[in-house]
Amino acid sequence: MASGLRRFVGSLSRRNLSTACANKQLIQQHDGGVGSGKSLNLYSAINQALHIALETDPRAYVFGEDVGFGGVFRCTTGLADRFGKSRVFNTPLCEQGIVGFAIGLAAMGNRAIAEIQFADYIFPAFDQIVNEAAKFRYRSGNQFNCGGLTVRAPYGAVGHGGHYHSQSPEAFFCHVPGLKVVIPRSPRQAKGLLLSCIRDPNPVVFFEPKWLYRLSVEEVPEDDYMLPLSEAEVIREGSDITLVGWGAQLSIMEQACLDAEKEGISCELIDLKTLIPWDKETVEASVRKTGRLLISHEAPVTGGFGAEISASILERCFLRLEAPVARVCGLDTPFPLVFEPFYMPTKNKASCLESFKVPAQHCCMNLTAHGS
């Protein structure tokens, strides 16, 4: 990605979402104003957020496959012991049933926090999420809603997951009016964003980057705090090119920015955090300053959410762009096992961008031939 940058440089839409504030607690950006913290990895931060959600709201429930003993990634460890099996419990191996039950629970005024064991398994519940949860408020003329619904799911590469445990399905749900889609990049972000999602008056799909569950460690405030949804964050300011991503891909993009800086390229890096409704204004302001945009995500390039960002920014910034928008993404293949290193977008994957006129997606699809 870094070497590609060298060649490459040379109104939120609310979509039928409620804007009512379901919780009066002050929403903090970053950890400003929040009490002292301690070093946590991402799964521990998720666990801490779930503890707080259950402790502060007696209407909150956590359930899913194997959550009673902590779940496969240990995110729900200790919850059943502390809050009882009536509030934290295992479900049958039926994703449609998990989400269907969660919708009914939320419709009765509760906070339903449903876990899908892997994001790859969310598709049996697709009908419930897309045709029921997302349309509940709209079809009733705002008389009823299931805004207390949060669906958690570990997504993305894990290093050895293959095609049934490593998919990134966020784009499917970004197409659905009535849902919010949120993806954190770090422990501090994960805790604050998850609490915001649980307390948001809209159904939310919260994807957790499983690659970072134990790898990502940082100082996390111990207090109850929330981070605002639908607000992108400029992690790194720059003047030559804008980079946009989310989740685990942010750490890869930060490495690319550092390498590019050594070659005199100033990169502005933006974490989108909320994909729907996404913060067009922040990205637009950055691109109007830099004149260039590169988007990176793990999902396949065709139909990925990067395409939506590209189209929107092209419409808004056409006269300011000094080069075509580029995408460095996963390949248009099932997620492989032994060939995962070829599939994953890395900081060097844009190295075949020999001119501004070469679309990044073509470079990505040719990487296996070049062994990059």
Automatic annotation (TrEMBL):
Pfam families: Transket_pyr (PF02779), Transketolase_C (PF02780)
Family annotation (InterPro entries): THDP-binding, Transketo_C/PFOR_II, Transketolase-like_Pyr-bd, Transketolase_C
Compartmental location: Mitochondrion matrix
Boundaries of every Transketolase-like pyrimidine-binding domain copy: 40-215
Keywords: Mitochondrion, Oxidoreductase, Transit peptide
Cofactor(s) required for function per UniProt: thiamine diphosphate
SUPFAM superfamilies: Thiamin diphosphate-binding fold (THDP-binding), TK C-terminal domain-like
Catalytic activity: N(6)-[(R)-lipoyl]-L-lysyl-[protein] + 3-methyl-2-oxobutanoate + H(+) = N(6)-[(R)-S(8)-2-methylpropanoyldihydrolipoyl]-L-lysyl-[protein] + CO2
EC number(s) from the headed UniProt entry: 1.2.4.4
One annotated Gene Ontology cellular component of this protein: mitochondrial matrix
GO terms for biological process, alphabetical: branched-chain amino acid catabolic process; response to nutrient
One annotated GO molecular function: branched-chain 2-oxo acid dehydrogenase activity
Name of the top EC class for this enzyme: oxidoreductase
Subunit text: Heterotetramer of alpha and beta chains.
Protein known as: 3-methyl-2-oxobutanoate dehydrogenase (2-methylpropanoyl-transferring)
Species name: Citrus sinensis
